[in-house]
Amino acid sequence: MLKFPVSAAMVAAIAISFAHAQSNATVTIPVKKTEATSGKKMFASYCAPCHGVDGQGHGPVASSLKTSPLDLTMLSRKNGGQFPEKHVIAVLQFGADVPSHGSTTMPVWGPVLGSMSNTNPMDKQIRINNLVDYLKTIQAK
After folding, report:
1. What is the domain partition of the chain in residue ranges?
2. pLDDT digits (tens, 9 = 90+) for 88-136
3. pTM above the 0.90 mark?
4. Alpha helices, DSSP H only, in the chain?
5. Measuring CA to CA, how many Å separate 88 from each of 9, 96, 97?
6. In angstroms, rounded to a whole number, what is the distance separating the alpha carbons of residues 119 and 50?
7. How far apart are CA 129 and CA 141, in angstroms?
């Protein structure tokens, strides 16, 4: 019963410490549980604070970070026209060591998404798959 509030607090703490480590400003990112079936809603809740509602890296937290968040609409273009699905899944679950993140301290959503359901053990994978499917729809043409 307490898993979600604890998870939300954990995510907020990670986001705050990440923002604080990247600058002197303290930023709070509110995190709400979203439907597992809506990649768009999950993106708006979890990714948009840094990557922006449009995914282009201009979220409200972006200016407080040391390096700009990745433009997620360019993932396919930067990967020879193919969406790098396996890489995106791995980043969501385990973080990434890419220049735009500076280190693996980007909030890792896998554990948080996995703790949002105590009734369906596949909920984490469903959430990640739906988030990845949404990211495919915002790719630049």
Report:
1. 3-137
2. 998 888 877 654 444 555 666 767 777 776 677 788 889 899 999 999 9
3. no
4. 3-22, 39-42, 48-51, 85-94, 110-114, 123-137
5. 24, 9, 12
6. 30
7. 22
